[in-house]
Amino acid sequence: MDWQPEILYKDLYICIVNKPFGMLSQIDKKMEPGINELLFEYLGKPNFWVMLQRLDRMAGGLLTLATSKRAGNAMRAMQIAQQIHKTYLVIVEGVPEPSVGHLEQYTKKMANAQKWRMYDEPIEGGKSAILYYQVLGTINERSLLAVRPITGRTHQIRAQMAYKGHPVVGDKKYGKTEWLNDFSLCLFSHRIQFEHPITKAPVQVTAPAPFHRDVWSQFKDVDIVI
Predict the structure, then answer these.
(1) pLDDT tens, 37-62?
(2) Residue 224 lies in a domain
């Protein structure tokens, strides 16, 4: 694949890249390579390589990888300790109320389906799912949100916003919305902040909001103050 990665941060230990919508995070069962494999080749096959997060093919934005075992282990520990702060831009159907709030449920994978369900009360085999959100703007009964997940559960933002009654635009799997023409989701990993596990310097990386894309473009004049 002729692909030039948009690398937004790189040092001896960590690499952060802006994943395009429509690309896999890593190779699938059909052996289609993802960012993980393509970037590994592009950077000359580093001696150590581990992906620290994943995004659905239909989503876009920041992905973080470690090129040092020491950094990889430290970053994983930081994830567990909730010391890595991620902010997503998300367009949802409707207008969430209140305009600034948090959601706290329990999530569990549905049997025989690649889908997760939310519960208000603890359930056997379920895990806590917590996120904070802020409405940045509303146009034509759709709202642009800044979302900060505290827990990093699979499909958390998608399932939790749908459970609240505001599914992610384009996410017909989880809510009452329509597929977009390119089958993308209006979900974008926008910012990541953490203390560098080796140098201890503060790291903040922000990917440009995808306002050049359909649906997103109607929010291009909204100030992203997070």
Answers:
(1) 999 999 999 999 999 999 999 999 99
(2) no
2 in any annotated domain: no
Q: What are phi and psi of 193, to 5 degrees?
A: -135, 135
Written as one letter, the residue type at 223 is D
Question: What does the angle CA 183 – CA 91 – CA 117 come to, to the nearest 5 degrees?
Answer: 75
Counted domains in the chain = 1
Task: Identify whether 44 is part of a domain.
Answer: yes
Give the pLDDT score at 86. Answer: 97
Token pair of 97 as six digits: 């109320």
Whole-number Cα distances in Å, 137 to 10, 100, 143, 161:
33, 12, 6, 16
Assign residue 53 the CATH number of its domain: 3.30.2350.10
DSSP 93: E
| Residue 204 falls inside a structural domain | yes
CA distance 60 to 63: 9
Instruction: Provide the residue range defining the domain that includes 114.
Output: 7-219
The whole-angstrom distance between residue 44's C-alpha and the CA centroid of its chain comes to 26
pTM (two decimals): 0.95
Choice among 8-17, 98-107, 171-180 with the minimum mean pLDDT: 171-180
Using the predicted structure, report yes or no on whether residue 1 has a pLDDT greater than 60.
Answer: no
